[in-house]
Amino acid sequence: MTSSARLPPQPGEELDRTTTLKFTWGGHPYHGYAGDTIASALAAAGIGVFSRSVKYHRPRGLMTATFHDPGCTVQVGDEPNVRGAHRRLESGMDVRPQNAWPSLQHDVKAANQLAGRFLGAGFYYKTFIRPRRLWPAYQKVLSRFAAGGTVRAGDAPDRFDQRYAHVDVCVAGGGPAGIAAAIGAAASGARVLLVDEEYRLGGHLRYGSPSELAALAELRAALAAHDNVEVLANSVVAGRYDDNWLAVVERQPTATGGGDRTDGAVFERLVKVRAGALVAAPGLVERPYVFEGNDAPGVLLSTAVRRLVNLWAVRPGERAVVLSANPEGDAAVEDLRRAGVDVTRVVDARRGGDVLRAETSGRGEHRRLRRVTLAGGQRIECDLLVTAVGWTAPTMLLNLAGDRPEFSSVANRFVPGGRAHASVLATGGLAGDGSLEALVEHGRATGREAASRATGGSPAAIPLLAVVAHPACFRARTHGMVDFSEDVSSKDIASAAAEGFDSIELVKRFTTATMGPAQGKLETVNLV
């Protein structure tokens, strides 16, 4: 990324360019705009490396540009482990990289990369067993390599709060289907709570085409017309328990529900919700592709590229190669070209195209993608590699309601098994595929049915959403990272299975895959 990576105003951008926010990164002054995330402001300033990885201390940059970005965890003042690709920028922030000493550029612990052959899956179970009397010494050494930021004992500058809420319908997810479900339930007279992890509702429509932005404006206006809907933005339904007792974590709440933090405001609130019915509408999570060098700074998902360009007006690179297996990847190509990026090659996975490795150059925080090697052996110079290879369905809330997801060999992702409690319904990408109109109609009907089940009204007919065929793109012929949070590679997975840990639950615990901050949102399908 260059120092002139900020683009002119974009149709759907969430920036307020009249408000400039000054902050520091590693002690050096930077600035961004209101509406920027920490990571988008730094990316606009040409920063490409945000952290070092947990075990091998490899340089890491943006990948998803969302809350679950594994390479963008930073320290903000006295607060550790801040999700920099999600947290909104604030004036005066003191932001510093984590997991690097003495600096991001010169990280002594990067020597772990040289000892990588001794740090494979399960090494910690085998290495520090005997003699037992030396365990205190081992513990001191290991503690120095523990990842994460710094907590100052005794400091509690932020306030935490809780409240109770009783609603007829809770909708988890504020994409087009989730908004439509809230509208459908509210129109049936139900009291509705709509929860979304982003700062603004809309899901993928927020970074979509002009027609999608227009559709989003209509949905937001229709939702605003109902005064029996409460919206909690920057929040998440963290758990579902018996009788639809829901734990909702509301981050940095304001009077309007979510948004920027203000002095004296509650930092985080636990909302204990009792809902008559729950609608799960989390959408789909784009998953990475496994190949050699897939964790290099400059390897991004297609949805990350579209967010950077359309929401925060950031050019993510100068010269790009795109591996596309779906229309979302094709849309990313168009966004890149509109942003002035030279898309030198589009590799179509639907026609057998593949990428074998990504190579980098430079050291520390200046390490960048320099070239990629394609399946035919061709090497292409670039500073950006974009992958669009498929999706993970976040089925957690359905699982907690008794469902067991099933793997679709057509869509090549998990889908609901249809055994969730009757008071829990699914809509949107979690339920299936379809046009925007089909997803919105499915959401409205699901909202109406949820209201009916909660209040005893007349049942609503819910149209079916089929799944669309998608290529099985999981790993190239080369090995790469499967869990970017925990530095678990596909070699580690194969090694663990060879040692007898060939159950998915056993290999998860033996390798720690899916046990990092992303909690399987990116890794589960590739791990399986």
Keywords for this entry:
12 helices, alpha/beta, five-stranded mixed sheet, 528 residues, globular, 22% helix, seven-stranded mixed sheet
Mean pLDDT: 90
Q: How many beta-strand elements?
A: 27
Helix content: 10-25%
Which stretches are low in confidence, meaning pLDDT under 50 for 5 or more residues running? 255-263
Distance between the termini: 34 Å
Shape: globular
How large is the radius of gyration?
A: 23 Å
Short synopsis of the structure:
By secondary structure, the chain is α/β, with parallel strands linked by helices. It contains twelve helices and 27 strands. Residues 255-263 have low confidence and may be disordered.
Topology:
Layout: E1 16-25, E2 28-34, H1 38-44, E3 51-52, E4 59-60, E5 73-76, E6 79-83, E7 94-97, H2 123-127, H3 135-144, E8 159-172, H4 176-187, E9 192-195, H5 210-224, E10 229-232, E11 235-241, E12 245-251, E13 266-280, E14 285-286, E15 299-301, H6 302-312, E16 319-324, H7 327-338, E17 342-348, E18 355-361, E19 368-374, E20 379-381, E21 384-388, E22 391-392, H8 396-400, E23 406-408, E24 413-415, E25 424-426, H9 436-455, E26 481-483, E27 488-489, H10 490-498, H11 504-511, H12 524-527
Parallel strand pairs: 1-7, 8-9, 8-13, 9-10, 13-25, 15-21, 16-17, 16-21
Antiparallel strand pairs: 1-2, 3-4, 5-6, 5-7, 11-12, 12-13, 14-22, 18-19, 19-20, 23-24, 26-27
